[in-house]
């Protein structure tokens, strides 16, 4: 690994990814990874105009070769001290197959590739979702989601598209799998004295969030927000602040866990706030 400067890797340059990169990237080499060339270039150019040192890497997070190249490229630039994986699809954007490929397989590939690329003392965060916190899976399936080698993950019979049925169910299952895989990966990452956690956002004011609010369950989501303890949508900066904490020195004793950042939506649901 190069002995260059501090490297911050952010995958997925949407509203959350951009806010996270700007909050964490000052004084670092910021590697931005996305599958959308136009979005990637626009975000990189915007950050360079603000004085950031940015490297662009076109990446399909569901492709093992592309993810390996991303990790190798980042490691060649210096010490990878921070990795934040935000890349993903929402139920209104994609099919069951694409959600499983990007939202479930993608994070697993990222966790594998960066387990050996992170510098000692580094920290990673995978963006999951409150949908994963709400999802209820059989304990046996959760166990297999934790231990199944990544190359065979999508071969699990419960992950067959015809079994899952719809994108919303696929999304909740994938995000629960993110939480589970992060928990399991913390053991491997720990051998390098690196930490990894997940964050489960609630309904966030991003283009993806707006698309969901305009979708078939938009009214239900608005009711959930209204019944929550904060009564508002989250912002990308709310998530960036949580990522800043989980990748910083104040959280050095925190690894293998999930931080729910949802404005109290899940608390409201579990306490009958919508009932």
CATH superfamily, by name, is NAD(P)-binding Rossmann-like Domain
Number of domains: 1
Number of DSSP strand runs: 7
Mind telling me the CATH class?
Alpha Beta
CATH level 3 topology: Rossmann fold
| Strand/helix succession | EHEHEHEHEHHHHEHHHEH
Low-confidence stretches: none
User: What is the architecture at the second tier of CATH?
Assistant: 3-Layer(aba) Sandwich
**How helical, in percent, are the residues?**
40-55%
The chain-level mean pLDDT equals: 93
Rough shape?
A: globular
Count helical runs.
Answer: 12
Q: Distance N terminus to C terminus?
A: 55 Å
Provide the β-strand percentage band: 15-25%
Major beta sheet, strand line-up? 3-2-1-4-5-6-7
Radius of gyration: 18 Å
What is the multimeric organization of the chains shown?
single chain
Describe the main β-sheet briefly.
7 strands, parallel
Summing up helix and strand content along with how strands pair, one would put the structural category as: alpha/beta
């Amino acid at each position: 690994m190069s002995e260059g400067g501090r490297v911050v890797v952010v995958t997925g340059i949407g509203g959350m990814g951009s806010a996270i990169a700007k909050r964490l990237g000052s004084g670092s080499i910021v590697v931005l990874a996305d599958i959308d060339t136009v979005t990637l270039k626009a975000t990189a150019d915007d950050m360079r105009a603000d004085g950031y040192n940015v490297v662009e890497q076109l990446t399909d997070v569901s492709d093992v070769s592309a993810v390996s190249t991303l990790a190798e490229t980042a490691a060649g630039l210096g010490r990878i001290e921070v990795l934040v994986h935000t890349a993903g699809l929402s139920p209104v954007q994609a099919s069951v197959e694409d959600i499983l490929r990007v939202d479930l397989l993608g994070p697993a590939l990222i966790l594998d590739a960066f387990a050996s690329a992170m510098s000692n003392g580094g920290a990673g965060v995978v963006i999951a979702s409150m949908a994963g916190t709400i999802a209820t899976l059989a304990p046996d399936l959760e166990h297999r989601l934790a231990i199944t080698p990544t190359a065979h993950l999508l071969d699990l019979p419960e992950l067959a598209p015809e079994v899952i049925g719809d994108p919303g169910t696929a999304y909740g299952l994938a995000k629960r799998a993110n939480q589970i895989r992060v928990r399991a990966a913390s053991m491997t990452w720990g051998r390098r004295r690196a930490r990894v956690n997940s964050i489960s956002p609630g309904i966030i004011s991003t283009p993806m969030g707006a698309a969901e609010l305009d979708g078939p369950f938009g009214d239900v989501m608005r009711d959930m927000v209204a019944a929550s303890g904060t009564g508002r949508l989250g912002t990308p900066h709310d998530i960036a602040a949580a990522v800043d904490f989980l990748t910083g020195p104040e959280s050095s004793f925190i690894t293998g866990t999930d931080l729910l950042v949802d404005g109290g939506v899940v608390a409201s649901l579990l306490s009958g706030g919508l009932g």
